[in-house]
Write a structure and sequence with these properties.
4-stranded antiparallel β-sheet; 6-stranded antiparallel barrel; rod-shaped; alpha+beta; about 40% helix; Elongation Factor Tu (Ef-tu), domain 3; about 25% strand; about 350 residues; 5 helices
């Protein structure tokens, strides 16, 4: 009786009070939490907002290699300053250097052969041939003298006609030997035959071309900086195999950071509001108090799909953006290549 009369009504009233309190508390507006970082404020009356990423003024150059192979030497590391033409790393080149040694030897052989032809005649080769000419001349004179005596005989019965003919043939043979000796002497004194010299020169040129080709091949094993800049990232190590061609992760990332560029993504729906030369301000993501005015560089004339997502829930993967480039001195803002910034561009 007591439970029915007192306890149950009390419990009912308490439950009703709890229900009323719960409903009232749920219907109250909860305070919006303060943002982790204050968003960037536009200094312009009318502006277009966009997200940008800092890059080198030369754009971020992904360094690759002409030839695949094992890296045997690294000349740089991240943060180093380099000049155009400075070596970055070396691909193993022992085979090419051995080939170069062989081809240099072949070049020297070809040069010696050409030099031998160009130095003809040898001084010591001339006297023997001159002596042969003198000997041939003496034999001819003797044969002629003998023939004259045979032909001066008045009584032809005292000589045999066959012997007289033999003396005449001896004179002709002596004349032929003299002509041959003189021709050999003249050929020796004339030096090398021009076509032979030309062939030897062509062989030297061919050997030199092979040496130059191998030297160029060796040079290609050394990867060099294409521009003045700073090593932004170094993903190559001694002993690793460097692949040729485009890579997902570049071996070395290089760019000129004396002046930094900001590549701004402007939604295609707002692209018409951006005009060339418009003023803009860049603020660091996460700290809007760090900002700097940026200088217009150019507008990329081709609207592209957006690739660098900001993580906002309202962002669509299929969004297309107009890319606008601005620049600022590196000392103007404590920022790094690859860092995201918020951009406000003055609009109409």
């Amino acid at each position: 009786m007591f439970v029915r009369k007192y306890v149950i009504p009390v419990l009912a009233v308490a439950g009703l009070a709890l229900a009323v309190h719960t409903v009232r508390s749920e219907n109250q507006e909860r305070p919006v939490p303060a943002p982790v970082a204050e968003p960037a404020k536009s200094p312009f009356t009318n502006s277009v907002a966009g997200s940008g990423i800092i890059e080198a003024s030369t754009e971020n150059i992904e360094i690759g290699t002409h030839l695949p192979g094992i890296i045997t030497k690294m000349y740089v590391e991240a943060g180093d300053k380099v000049k155009a033409g400075d070596p970055l790393f070396l691909i193993e080149d022992r085979t090419a250097r051995a080939e170069l040694a062989v081809r240099k030897t072949n070049l020297e052989v070809a040069r010696q052969a050409l030099s031998r032809l160009e130095q003809l005649p040898r001084v010591e080769d001339v006297p023997p041939l001159e002596a042969r000419v003198a000997q041939a001349q003496t034999l001819l004179d003797d044969a002629k003298d003998t023939l004259v005596r045979w032909e001066s005989v008045t009584d032809m019965r005292a000589i045999v006609a066959e012997d007289l003919s033999r003396r005449r043939f001896a004179v002709q043979a002596a004349e032929t030997r003299l002509v041959d000796a003189r021709a050999q002497l003249d050929q020796l004194k004339a030096g090398a035959w021009k076509p032979e010299v030309d062939v030897a020169k062509a062989q030297v040129d061919a050997a030199q071309a092979l040496v130059d080709s191998t030297a160029t091949e060796i040079e290609r094993h050394t990867v060099r900086a294409p521009v003045d800049g700073e090593i932004l990232q170094c993903n190559a190590r001694v002993g690793e195999f460097a692949q040729a061609g485009a890579l997902d992760t570049p071996l070395i990332l290089l760019g000129n950071t004396d002046t930094l560029h900001v590549r701004v993504d402007v939604d295609e729906n707002d692209a018409w509001r951006v005009r060339p030369g418009a003023k803009a301000r860049a603020s660091l993501r996460g700290n809007a108090s760090l900002f700097t005015d940026v200088t217009f560089v150019r507008i990329e004339p081709y609207v592209v799909p957006k690739r660098s997502l900001t993580g906002e829930s309202s962002e669509r993967v299929d969004t297309r953006v107009l890319q606008v480039l601005y620049s600022f001195p590196r000392a103007a803002l404590n920022a790094y290549v690859g860092q995201l910034v918020d951009i406000n561009i003055e609009s109409q």
